[in-house]
Amino acid sequence: MEVSKETSPALEVATSFDELGLAAPILAALNEMGYKTPTPIQQQAIPLVLAGRDLMAQAQTGTGKTAAFALPLLQKMVPHANASASPARHPVRALVLTPTRELAIQVHESVVAYNKHLPLRSTVVFGGVDMKAQIADLRNGVEILVATPGRLLDHANSRSVLLSQVQFLVLDEADRMLDMGFLPDLKRILDFLPTQRQTLLFSATFDDNIVGLARSFLQNPLKVEVARRNTSAENVEQLVHKVKEEDKLDALVRVVNSRGIPQVLVFTRTKVCADKVGHRLQKRGIQAAIIHGDKAQVERLAALEGFKQGKVQYLVATDIAARGIDIVELPCVVNYELPYAPEDYVHRIGRTGRAGASGLAVSLVAPDEERLLAGIERFIKRDLNASPLPEIARPQQVHAQASSAEAVPAAPAAAQIPGARVGRRRAEPVCALLLPPVQRAEPAPSAPQA
Ligand code: AMP
């Protein structure tokens, strides 16, 4: 099969969800979630999915891609929505495959929220947990199934789920699924699915492997893309401080205070560490919020909102949770722990220094992380020489900053340090969830070649 050279047709860009023709129960859910305007990927993808086309969509997490596929699929399933208790009336119609358990949970949470006012059923299945509860859910019947490939195959092989009525297949973060070696599983899953179906492939990158995958999974797909996040990080100053594990919290606060950094995104490898760092900052009276995969969607949104409004100075996040955030004009990211995968380092530092703004990425490296640092240096083809920690701000400065911060609560305290490197006016919010890229995403100049 050839991948179509067709690109997405010039569209009338819908500026509201209403204009996209979504049903009232879906619009009500979006309204309750505070979604006002469709993001660029939603503007492009939703009409095409509604029109029944297969799609190759180049969009990262953080662009609103989940709603870009979930909303039109829900819309297409509205005629099948029923409140019958019979499992036979709730066959799997939409299957969403994701590479990780965290992403599966996150996608499912979004589906549940968008589906709140419809009687369509959904569930999520992933490995590493007992199958029994999942089997019970599946046997009850679900129209929307979010799954990681391995566990789905276990269920399909043991016939705890039937996939013969799947009308819609979504491959989410397809590049990551291939990186993680899921291609054989994906091919086996294909054997359980009808050939007549609509398939949507979402991927941050489109290399030959993805085009190969598209060839076996999609039919005459259209390609849509939104502007990529800056990951080249050329305008990001990258600093490394060698710090013992037990001194990292002090080092973090010192970096932020001494440089007068108004807001910082702090990365940890694990949820446990994110909790520990966040709570210890809070104990010091610092405005800190935590986001990771175990936090409920509502808590994550509250944390992001606080950060967006400038009320929260430190947002402590794991890689997976942070992938769901698109923050612009972020002055600084700190790697409290280096990631295991060098690619994640590039993704992390790509959160700052966007679109011509200069950014700062600081890594606090403990002795047992030297190996990870060497791996990152090889990956980015650049030495990251360690420098000493900055001087501590004088006590009277810290005091002054605390009292003036009280007078202007929306401005993070550190922004008040005299001579501080502050990138914006105080009253301005420092980030905007999902704002850029705001330019209308152009149809791709050419579809991938077969
Ligand atoms: P995603 O790229 O699908 O992981 O979405 C990233 C985040 O943006 C999630 O927290 C979504 O709830 C949120 N989001 C998606 N679309 C919109 C929208 N149109 N308006 C506001 N927030 C959105």
Tag the structure with descriptive keywords.
450 residues, alpha/beta, Rossmann fold, 2 domains, seven-stranded parallel sheet, 37% helix, disordered C terminus, binds adenosine monophosphate
Describe the structure.
The protein is an alpha/beta fold. Helices cover 37% and strands 14% of the residues. The protein contains 16 helices and 13 strands. The strands form two sheets. Strands 3-4-2-5-6-1-7 form a seven-stranded parallel beta sheet, with helices on both faces. A six-stranded parallel beta sheet has the order 8-13-12-9-11-10, with helices on both faces. 47% of the residues are buried.
Concise account of the structure shown:
This protein is of the alpha/beta class and about 450 residues long.
CATH architectural designation of the largest domain: 3-Layer(aba) Sandwich
Give the rounded overall mean pLDDT: 81
Q: Which hetero compounds are present in the coordinates?
A: adenosine monophosphate
SSE series: HHEHEHEHEHEHHEHEEHEHEHEHEHEHH
Annotation, overall tally of beta strands: 13
The multimeric state of the shown protein is single chain
| CATH domain class of the largest domain | Alpha Beta
Helix content: 25-40%
Instruction: Please give the alpha-carbon distance between the first and last residues.
Output: 8 Å
Please, how many domains? Answer: 2
Query: What structural class results from the helix and strand content?
Result: alpha/beta
Number of helices: 16
Please state the CA-atom Rg, rounded to the nearest Å: 23 Å
